Amino acid sequence: MSSFWNAIRFAHFKPLKNYPKINVNDVTLDRPALQKGPIRRKLISQEVTDSLFPATEITRLYKEAGKPIPRKFNTKSELISRRNFEFQQEAFRTGDAHFRLGEKNVYFPKARIVLLRPNAKHTPYQAKFLVPRNFNRLDLRDYLFHVYGLRALNVTVQLLHTKWTRNRHDYARFRGPQFKKMTIDMEEPFIWPEVPKELAEEAQTVRDNQIKVIEHNFKKGSDKKNKPKAFDGLYVRPKLADNFVPRSTRDKGAKELENFNRKSEEVENKKVLSQFLNL
């Protein structure tokens, strides 16, 4: 049936007799769009491209041209940004804090701050920390500056979602704890040192030995009698010497030990009775 429909399809197809032959070098694939109408001049706001505070420069150009200033450039937000920028630059020169300090003094911080390895998207000028969930950006910035002298220029917060885990006994499902991570921008780069080759090999050896111990603990049948080779035979129990003792000697020693224990108990009971009766 399929061959029949293929035959019909090819029967209706009629290729062109004189198909034009064109060289690819003679064809412009990305042809520029045709310009319709007069070319418009750039706006005054588009002329400023290399300024840290462009709104101030754009406002000045509009005033010089005698044109009304657009509403989005006639604000005080850039004045506040310039004031904060000058305050931070002055703090960098003097070594003071580049932010407003907190009013509560904490002499023994209990928070656990963990420096994590950066991801592939992070630059050497960024560092990532694992912080408590009740920590905010101001706390981390204040903590790093006073404890380590590290300036956190920008702080980004990431609150990870909890994962579902199952109980090993009844397979009940519950959510684990949440983790909070913060990424900061720094003045100077920091690159994690490479792990020494000896340390990596040692960690791999320990991991392999631990796997061998787990496999030995879950062995069944006659495999349990095999000696574990993990950790250079550390888990092999030493075989104690079993000296041969005749049965008669063993029975005689057991009777003597029983008589000694009975006499010791009688002496102890008499001593307690004499103390009770004041004899």
UniProtKB/TrEMBL annotation:
Annotated SUPFAM superfamilies: Ribosomal proteins S24e, L23 and L15e
Listed InterPro entries: Nucleotide-bd_a/b_plait_sf, Ribosomal_uL23-like, Ribosomal_uL23/eL15/eS24_sf
Keyword match Cytoplasm: no
One GO process term, biological-process aspect: mitochondrial translation
Pfam family, one: Ribosomal_L23
Gene Ontology MF: a single term: structural constituent of ribosome
The keyword DNA-binding appears for this protein: no
Domain of life of the native organism: Eukaryota
Keywords of this entry: Ribonucleoprotein, Ribosomal protein
GO cellular component: mitochondrial large ribosomal subunit
UniProt similarity note: Belongs to the universal ribosomal protein uL23 family.
Entries under PANTHER family matching the protein: LARGE RIBOSOMAL SUBUNIT PROTEIN UL23M, RIBOSOMAL PROTEIN L23-RELATED
Protein name as it appears in the record: Large ribosomal subunit protein uL23m
